[in-house]
Specification:
Number of strands: 2
Radius of gyration: 13 Å
Strand content: 5-15%
Number of helices: 4
Shape: globular
Distance between the termini: 23 Å
Helix content: 40-55%
Largest sheet: 2 strands, antiparallel
Strand order of the largest sheet: 1-2
Length: 91
């Protein structure tokens, strides 16, 4: 597979919308990237205000800022919520 329609950042957001308590190792396995890459993506998303991290016991839970606009200039009039509504629910 040479390319996909979504970036790994997009994949992380969609998977977190399905499972906010998922472990980094599980995210990495599902997307097919390293745990370090997932950690860097989560940091990017957190630093940009797209994801908040909350500690729950020994695990983290992630909350998505669903009203945040998408980042690309051609999609800035759409929100993360819209992306998740279209792609987030597994059928």
């Amino acid at each position: 597979m040479n390319w996909t329609f979504l970036t790994n950042h997009g994949h992380v957001l969609i998977i977190l919308s399905r499972n906010p308590g998922i472990r980094i190792s599980e995210l990495a396995d599902e997307i097919g990237i390293s745990e370090r890459q997932v950690s860097n993506i989560l940091k990017d998303l957190h630093d940009s205000g797209y994801v908040a991290k909350q500690r729950q016991g020994r695990r983290n839970s992630y909350e998505i800022s669903s009203d945040a606009p998408l980042r690309h200039h051609s999609n800035q009039d759409h929100t993360v919520k819209e992306l998740i509504e279209i792609l987030g629910e597994k059928k």
